[in-house]
Amino acid sequence: PPPSAPTGITLTIWTIEPLSPAQSGESGRILAHQLTEFEAAHPDVAVECILKKPYGKGGILDFLRTASAAAPAVLPDLVAIDMAELGEAARAGLVQPLDDLISSKLVKNLFPFAHQACRLEGQLVGIPFEADVEHLAYNAAQLESPPLTWTEVLTEGITYVFPAGGEQVSNAFLIQYLAAGGQLFDEDGRPALDEDILAEVLGFYRDGREAGVIPPSVLGFKTLDDCWPLYLSAKATMAHVSSQRFMADRELLKSTAFGPIPTRDGTVVTIAQGWAWAVVTDDPARRDLAARLIEWLLEPENSAAWNRAAGHLPTRRAAFEVWGTRDPYIAFLKGQLEAAHVRPSGPGWDEILAALQKAVRDVLTGQASPKEAAASALAALER
């Protein structure tokens, strides 16, 4: 039987303002109500949310590290953490395994990318609760339908923008690489890249640059939001956009339609990013209560209501059933989540993503051929 909860327990959560009851607007009110309902079902339990920065010094992961070493008494019972940092927290022993705590029915109902994000070496270390995906927005006044393949992109006489700047390669490149059949990890789970497929994707970038389809300005775009104003000003026919941004602006986008990101042969691939719940406490009673709270917040009706208000996507198929799929955009997003991958992170990946970004920059500026850039990227990683 599960351990009984001690009388008068306060369950502490570390989170960030946008994912808290302190968030102004409907999402904050919905989450506050859901926490109140949880407390009503557990009369001896109170839930307290403590706000932290999302990243960097003083951020969630940094605070977990420093507090576990210097002041473990202040550690929370439950923490919201970016999926990209969940593995690092688990490798450092900062979060607890959840295999025996979370309902197998809930776990099986997660979209594939969420399964991928919440497991480390076979162990369940967190539960993703919200996500955003990257897809295409295009000017429906200029295109009857979105191009699905590289060939269609290069022959439509259009302008196509996406993030291609920054210190690390963007999701836009990784999506193309994965859709072309590239692998990110070998059978032992170690980082592994295919040089020929890298060169093929870089070749598409070169062809797009030479055809005037991919403008030089993409090297100045580090994020999806950076390239969005260019699209809104009608200076680009189509652009990558996050589902969160598209949902927020959708009512204003009178001549904009959506579609999957065009890939080599039309294979549908995207990358999902988002946040997960992880249990920190090793006290059996608190750990069990934290798991019950996770399950409560991810009940389909609760997850569907909060995610809709917050402008994010649920991570469970059952929550999408609550949303319904009459709206073609919602049906489209469900398909995108079925095809989504998680951006790679962990030991060695910062260097890999930086080397790939140099390859992208060299090809888009004409400093190297696709084959030269791909070979140089892999050679840099072997040093």
Distance between the termini: 53 Å
Morphology: globular
Strand content: 15-25%
Average pLDDT number = 95
Q: Strand-and-helix sequence, N→C?
A: EHEHEHHHEEEHEHHHEHEEHHHHEHH
Got a strand count? 11
Unreliable stretches covering 5 or more consecutive residues = none
Report the biggest beta sheet as strand number plus sense, adding barrel if it closes: 9 strands, mixed
Structural class based on helices, strands and sheet pairing: alpha/beta
Round the Cα radius of gyration to an integer and report it: 22 Å
Q: What does it look like?
A:
By secondary structure, the chain is of the alpha/beta class. The chain is 43% helix and 16% strand. The chain is built from 16 helices and eleven strands. The strands form two sheets. Strands 1, 2, 3, 6, 7, 8, 9, 10 and 11 form a nine-stranded mixed β-sheet that branches. Strands 4-5 form a two-stranded antiparallel sheet. Helix 12 crosses helix 13 (317-323). The model has no long low-confidence stretch (mean pLDDT 95).
Short synopsis of the structure:
With 383 residues, this protein is α/β, with parallel strands linked by helices. It is built from 16 helices and 11 strands. Strands 1, 2, 3, 6, 7, 8, 9, 10 and 11 form a 9-stranded mixed β-sheet that branches.
Task: Provide key terms for this protein.
about 375 residues, alpha/beta, two-stranded antiparallel ribbon, 11 strands, about 15% strand, globular
Describe the protein's topology.
Blueprint: E1 9-15, H1 26-41, E2 45-51, H2 60-70, E3 78-82, H3 83-91, H4 104-108, H5 112-117, E4 119-120, E5 123-124, E6 127-139, H6 150-155, E7 160-161, H7 171-179, H8 195-210, H9 224-232, E8 238-242, H10 243-249, E9 256-259, E10 270-279, H11 284-297, H12 300-310, H13 317-323, H14 328-338, E11 340-342, H15 349-364, H16 370-382
Parallel strand pairs: 1-2, 1-3, 7-8, 10-11
Antiparallel strand pairs: 3-10, 4-5, 6-8, 6-9, 6-10
